[in-house]
């Protein structure tokens, strides 16, 4: 099946329709948004088998992995729909009038309202959870924004199928025409045209640094700049602290061999850099990790382009000064397969060579060997912004390395202790974000219902009579929302 | 008194010191931030008389106006300090572990942490409340960020005096060295150097569109782009709806004559455009407004540059096709005084000429005369983003003009009914922000304690033992904060 690129005229028509849908959708009660999102979830359940079949053909991902991602996507839609209705994200603030103040203080009530049509660019590596009906789309719908998805060309047919499920859900729940649109386009131009369109009010992107940064730049060059949340991946450093490593070198190695190679290393939270201090414990860790990696078979990557990029980036990294291969899978890779690889380098060389700080998207990780604590601190201070950082540490390790812990905290969006960064739980406490270049705005997350906040803005109503206020702000609190009233949180009526 | 521009070397030294201060300050408990901010407020009380004296000399603003702005600044510091300690802005989310889930769900806890050193550019028109110890500075300190203020050259001595008060407060409360810095510089280069410095992590700005947009562009061209919140003013349209205008033409005119000329029109919420439908009620309104304006004396503007710009922009606006002067003050303006002026134009001409949509900073407003409801709607649809919009309307007017009300809502950050936009209450429900070009990011406010959120980002702690977590996230909730625990808001221990 082949899809034609959308023309500028088609995009113009789509965006005007989105705008009209925005005017209608933003006025619908939260309950209606909830119904629409649950209907989407149901539609995705209805087409489970053919959907996973097609996705598996397009992405080379195993069906059980895809089915669990599909379930996650369904859960995500329902969970954000619940959060939408719970309404905490509305950040309602009410200050009642004080007429006898000088000058009199008016009644002011603030809540979040949607920004407008949101353009979403899905990820190649998560055809469901971070794509057409994925987190960005769910957040935008919860916020009250129509969505225009630019289908990822690597799984365009999967995307089309999911889009049809969304259209079906929209129809069943009587959503305004144009609440969702699905656009195909092979190159950058289609995306650029969408981001430049004056009716577009925000952008969600998951993918490469090059793609995410380019869209960010385009958005900032508009006459009216708009917010872009690009999640652009990272190397997710793992710091192996001495006491814990001594206690659990082999156990940690096993855990990481699995994490580095899960889904052929194609996770944006893949641990691409391991940092340890030379010595007996690190030798045991490396030996154990190497033994594990040798036994992990190469597997087919998402598409030939990604496999080719992996081969090139891996080769380039391995060709750098002082980089050595510690272990590769004992099996030869077939065409488009990613070869599990562990490399090593001294911290001295690592600190001198920023190329080694960059992501090699695939089943690859490099162990940076430090001379001592101080050099580990230097490495932490030289790393750029990350989605996650991890420490393998005892409580004592943490207490003994306070400045290091602070330095690591400062560069990451999620800080894991004695675990692996792969596996991004869908829950309100999740932060899937982080300092640049992990994302274009560290103040937001793209996973968890707080991701809704990317697509809303506050508005204050001053001196409005109760009868004309939105239900969310009315005195008797008909929706039973949590609201900050005169500086105190409450669900009571006023 | 004359101040020398900071050199690049001096700025480098200041920023390194700010960074060191950041590492120490962000670890201090909220109580310590509260103490520091209250000490700042006290210092500003201690120097009240000489401070208002100097500010009056530098800005030409009357002393009673300045004293009330000073008091507002003191209130603002205390109120944001209280909000800092109350901690709602930390957006704490806790999801406890579910070990028997497949795969096991780890314990994850999220809170806000400071971004790093914040560069603040104060406003010419509010030497206290939006300047050196103003809202941006208070928000940044509450967030846990050091502040570097670029003094406004129009009130550099006032700024220096306030800076010394901040230094004194920092010393008395044992704040880390470098928590605050004060930089002088006449031109754009000093500001640019500050924004480009790699240690700078966010920017707060209040002032002109040209200045705010230029800093936004500089920040986005950095290797590591950083968030800039520029509040750039607006024309704050006022829509006069028919039923209410008929009832209260004269009363509304009086209220607006005062609002348009308050502080010589030098408010970013000054109502620069009034929109009405032609007829007997609008004639009465215009006559009454004109009578009032004639009786309001010209007054000296903030500085000669602003007075000159007012003369030029006013002249240019009045020279446009179809623009007529309806009334000016009956008194001749002296040098550097702003002449209160009301102009009129037909909606036809207004819609054709975007120059008329732009701010004339000073005591000037233009009445746009529409043929009918539909043309008023057209005007609403043609306006850019605004800090505020106002309707003068009965409940019946609102119900009869639903699409118009929606269109107005869509372009503003604060929506006032039967009031004036001037007067920005310092409270949590305030939104002093709005769609571009009113600000560079409509998702934030610069007034009210929610302004803290501009300078923080979330971080998730995954799988950390209770003893190593920050107090904010510990099981027993020692700070008594509101937290969302497993999707429910609570102040209980876990």
Total domain modules of chain A: 2
Strand order of the largest sheet of chain A: 11-13-14-9-8-15-16
Mean of all residue-level pLDDT scores of chain A:
97
Per CATH, the architecture of the largest domain in chain A is: 3-Layer(aba) Sandwich
What is the CATH domain class of the largest domain in chain A? Alpha Beta
Alpha plus pi helix count of chain A: 15
Identify the biggest protein-protein contact and residues per side. Answer: A-B, 76 and 76 residues
Computed CA radius of gyration of chain A, to the nearest angstrom: 24 Å
Helix content of chain A: 40-55%
Outline the low-pLDDT stretches of chain A. none
CATH level 4 superfamily of the largest domain in chain A: Aldehyde Dehydrogenase, Chain A, domain 1
Head-to-tail CA distance between termini of chain A: 58 Å
By CATH, the topology of the largest domain in chain A is Aldehyde Dehydrogenase, Chain A, domain 1
Question: How many beta-strand elements of chain A?
Answer: 19
User: In this structure, how is the largest beta sheet of chain A organized?
Assistant: 7 strands, mixed
Structure description:
Two copies of one chain form a homodimer. Chain A is an alpha/beta fold. Chain A folds into two domains: 8-232 and 441-458 and 468-473, Aldehyde Dehydrogenase, Chain A, domain 1 (3-Layer(aba) Sandwich); 238-417, Aldehyde Dehydrogenase, Chain A, domain 2 (3-Layer(aba) Sandwich), CATH 3.40.309.10. Helices cover 40% and strands 18% of the residues of chain A. The first copy, chain A, has 15 helices and 19 strands. Chain A has helices spanning 8-25, 30-46, 48-59, 63-86, 135-143, 156-172, 188-196, 209-220, 242-261, 280-294, 304-318, 347-352, 373-382, 395-400, 402-411, and strands at residues 93-95, 108-114, 118-121, 147-150, 180-183, 202-206, 228-231, 238-240, 273-277, 299-300, 324-328, 337-338, 341-346, 364-370, 386-392, 412-417, 456-462, 483-485, 488-490. In chain A, the strands form four sheets. In chain A, strands 11-13-14-9-8-15-16 form a seven-stranded mixed beta sheet, with helices on both faces. Chain A has a five-stranded mixed beta sheet with strand order 17-2-1-18-19, with no helix packed on it. In chain A, strands 5-4-3-6-7 form a five-stranded parallel beta sheet, sandwiched between helices. In chain A, α2 crosses α6 (156-172) and α7 packs parallel to α8 (209-220). The termini of chain A are far apart. The mean pLDDT of chain A is 97. At the A-B interface, α4, β1, β2, α8 and β16 of A face α4, β1, β2, α8 and β16 of B. Chains A, B: This is Aldehyde dehydrogenase (NADP(+)). Chains A, B: Residues 2-426 form the Aldehyde dehydrogenase domain.
């Amino acid at each position: 099946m082949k899809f034609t690129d959308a023309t500028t005229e088609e995009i113009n028509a789509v965006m005007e329709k989105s705008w009209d849908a925005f005017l209608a959708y933003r006025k619908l009660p939260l309950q209606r948004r909830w119904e629409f999102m649950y209907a989407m979830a149901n539609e995705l359940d209805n087409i489970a088998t053919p959907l996973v079949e097609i996705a598996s053909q397009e992405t080379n991902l195993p069906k059980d992995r895809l089915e669990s991602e599909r379930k996650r996507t369904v859960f995500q839609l329902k969970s954000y729909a619940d959060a939408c209705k719970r309404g905490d994200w509305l950040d309602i603030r009410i200050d009642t009038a004080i007429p006898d103040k000088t000058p009199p203080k008016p009644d002011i009530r603030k809540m979040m309202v949607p920004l407008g049509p949101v353009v979403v660019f899905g990820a190649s590596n998560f055809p469901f959870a971070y794509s057409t009906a994925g987190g960005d789309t769910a957040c935008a719908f919860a916020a009250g924004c129509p969505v225009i998805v630019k289908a990822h060309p690597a799984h365009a047919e999967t995307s089309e199928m999911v889009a049809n499920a969304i259209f079906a859900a929209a129809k069943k729940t009587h959503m305004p025409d144009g609440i969702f649109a699905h656009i195909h386009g092979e190159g950058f131009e289609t995306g650029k045209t969408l981001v430049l369109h004056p009716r577009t009010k925000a952008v969600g992107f998951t993918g490469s640094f090059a793609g995410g940064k380019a869209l960010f730049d385009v958005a900032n060059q508009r006459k009216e700049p708009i917010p872009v949340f690009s999640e652009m991946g990272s190397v997710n450093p793992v710091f192996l602290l001495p006491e814990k490593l001594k206690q659990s070198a082999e156990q940690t190695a096993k855990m990481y061999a699995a994490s580095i190679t899960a889904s052929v290393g194609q996770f944006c939270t893949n641990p691409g850099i391991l940092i340890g201090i030379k010595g007996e414990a690190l030798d045991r860790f490396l030996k154990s990790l190497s033994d594990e990696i040798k036994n992990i078979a190469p597997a087919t990557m998402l598409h030939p382009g990604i496999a080719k990029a992996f081969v090139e980036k891996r080769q380039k990294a391995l060709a750098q000064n002082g980089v050595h291969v510690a272990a590769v899978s004992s099996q030869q890779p077939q065409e488009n397969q990613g070869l599990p690889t562990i490399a090593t380098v001294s911290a001295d060389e690592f600190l001198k060579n920023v190329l080694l700080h960059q992501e090699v998207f695939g089943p690859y990780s490099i162990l940076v060997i430090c001379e001592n604590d101080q050099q580990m601190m230097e490495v932490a201070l030289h790393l750029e912004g990350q989605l996650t950082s991890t420490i393998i540490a005892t409580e004592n390790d943490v207490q003994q390395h306070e400045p290091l812990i602070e330095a690591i905290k400062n560069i990451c969006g999620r800080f894991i202790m004695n675990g692996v960064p792969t596996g991004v739980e869908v829950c309100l406490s999740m932060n899937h974000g982080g300092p640049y270049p992990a994302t274009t705005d560290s103040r937001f997350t793209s996973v968890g219902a707080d991701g809704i906040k990317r697509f809303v803005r506050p508005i204050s109503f001053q001196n409005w009579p109760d009868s004309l206020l939105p239900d969310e702000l009315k005195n008797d609190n008909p929706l039973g929302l949590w609201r900050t009233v005169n500086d105190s949180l409450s669900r009571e009526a006023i």
